Amino acid sequence: MRIISKYIIITYFFINDNLFEASHYSLSSGSLEIIYETSSTDLIPSESIVSLLPPSSFEYTSFYSQSTKTLIPLPKEESKFERFRRGIKYSKVLVGREVREETERRGGGGEEEEKVEGEGILRKSLSLLSLSSVLGSSLSERQTEKSVITTFLKNSIMSSGKSSNALFVAGPPGCGKTATVLNVIDNLFTLRSLGSLPSFSFLVINAMSLRTPYDAYTSLWRSVSGKVCNPVEASAGLDKWFGKKEGEKNVMVLLLDEMDYLVTRKQTVLYDLFDWPGRVTVNKLCIIGIANTINLPERLLPRVQSRLGLLRVTFQAYNVEQMKSILKTRLREVECFEDGAVEFAARKTVGLSGDCRRAFLVCAEAVKGVIDRVRAEKELGKEDISYTVKVRDVVNAVRGMTDVPQLQSLRCCSDFDALVVVSAASLLSSTGREEGGIGVEELRQKMSAVAAALGDSAFLPIPSFPELLQILNRLNDCRMIILETPKNQSMRLAAAGTSGVWPLVFLNVDVYDVLDVLVQTKHRKLAEKNLRRI
């Protein structure tokens, strides 16, 4: 987002929980001074947008659908003000309304105001623990990786000749890969505004949110040209754009998140995206690819490996001390957590997955539990109310997160049900995908390998194809898995990298929860052999 003079120029922005794509037409003339600029996502209350500029000089061109995970164009016949009202309509929560309600609650007298202030600290801690607030923030435990990424980007942006303009970043989920890169980009934008770095543009493509891998062409072409077209035309336009030898110099920094979702049979998309950075042209592309699979380059075709290069940054999972440091740094503005509560959340998370996002969720659930307790005690007229999050609150939060119906069903599932779930979880772990569909035949092959390696007669012989479909339908009924049939083959390839006519299998429980639950059942050996803790 960039604020110029009293006007605002935004490519994408959030109105609370909804992502919008926007266009702005400046009404002023002459040179405009850049007041503020950031590459991170900013949560702007709708009232603030109105105060920054009149709706008559601003329009929304499309909004982000939470159900389809795509940008939906808005009707062109609507006026700009009607589009603004539509933006308000699609907002799930109006922040301004919450602020007004908080102000009204604070107006009841001194003693009541002090009580609300205590609960307000808890609500502030919830906002600090939200996952959206972490992206782009500095992670103190990733200074080494941050230094390497900064050096790479500076050299790539400033270099005029042929150099290594591709970097591969890998590591387990939730270890700060994306947050670190976005924080580096924020710092580079600051250097650019000070004149210490040449001009460059920045684009994020999360491959997991694309309908098909080939939509990456469309997203990149729209960023460099402002035009929207189909992937075939976009690919041709990009090839010509990154082949220009004369003209004004342009540098594009592309963050390709979840890049393993772009792997297709011929791997054409990845080949093109990593081939363009190696060209010596006036339009330069610097690309950072992020994936959870550390050995992803070795799984690619040789021609793609050669384009990817040898520059890599590997993020290790957090240890207990690092996780404690991250949580304490995040919560330093509010003193509502006991040291023991933070340490317990850190140890519980590191012992299971090492995913800092899970630690944030655990702490957030603990805060919500304290808020509910405080409100209940207020209704009972209790005077000595504690606003501190204690160890028992974190314990209850962990228990509540693992007490969902799906996991309750998993605790008492049959042998073949456990084999299906463990095989699906193992496939997701081995491919590095946090989400994604699995083909039925692919799942059955994995079940065969898992059962054979275990050598337990309880899992042999594995179910036949019709029997497996019955098991999948039963697991789908209890929402342990979700069966979906993509509309076309391209969507199937994007979701699972496989073709066929049968539904795709989506695991509806966390991989680490599967391990955590099954180690307490008779299927402990099955889970421990095929699923591992980070």
UniProtKB/TrEMBL annotation:
<keyword id="KW-0067">ATP-binding</keyword>
<dbReference type="Pfam" id="PF00004">
    <property type="entry name" value="AAA"/>
</dbReference>
<feature type="domain" description="AAA+ ATPase">
    <location>
        <begin position="163"/>
        <end position="314"/>
    </location>
</feature>
<keyword id="KW-0235">DNA replication</keyword>
<keyword id="KW-0238">DNA-binding</keyword>
<keyword id="KW-0539">Nucleus</keyword>
<dbReference type="GO" id="GO:0005524">
    <property type="term" value="F:ATP binding"/>
</dbReference>
<comment type="subunit">
    <text>ORC is composed of six subunits.</text>
</comment>
<dbReference type="GO" id="GO:0033314">
    <property type="term" value="P:mitotic DNA replication checkpoint signaling"/>
</dbReference>
<comment type="function">
    <text>Component of the origin recognition complex (ORC) that binds origins of replication. DNA-binding is ATP-dependent, however specific DNA sequences that define origins of replication have not been identified so far. ORC is required to assemble the pre-replication complex necessary to initiate DNA replication.</text>
</comment>
<comment type="similarity">
    <text>Belongs to the ORC1 family.</text>
</comment>
<protein>
    <recommendedName>
        <fullName>Origin recognition complex subunit 1</fullName>
    </recommendedName>
</protein>
<dbReference type="InterPro" id="IPR050311">
    <property type="entry name" value="ORC1/CDC6"/>
</dbReference>
<dbReference type="GO" id="GO:0005664">
    <property type="term" value="C:nuclear origin of replication recognition complex"/>
</dbReference>
<dbReference type="InterPro" id="IPR054425">
    <property type="entry name" value="Cdc6_ORC1-like_ATPase_lid"/>
</dbReference>
<dbReference type="GO" id="GO:0006270">
    <property type="term" value="P:DNA replication initiation"/>
</dbReference>
<keyword id="KW-0547">Nucleotide-binding</keyword>
<dbReference type="InterPro" id="IPR027417">
    <property type="entry name" value="P-loop_NTPase"/>
</dbReference>
<dbReference type="GO" id="GO:0003688">
    <property type="term" value="F:DNA replication origin binding"/>
</dbReference>
<dbReference type="GO" id="GO:0016887">
    <property type="term" value="F:ATP hydrolysis activity"/>
</dbReference>
<dbReference type="InterPro" id="IPR003593">
    <property type="entry name" value="AAA+_ATPase"/>
</dbReference>
<dbReference type="InterPro" id="IPR003959">
    <property type="entry name" value="ATPase_AAA_core"/>
</dbReference>
<dbReference type="Pfam" id="PF22606">
    <property type="entry name" value="Cdc6-ORC-like_ATPase_lid"/>
</dbReference>
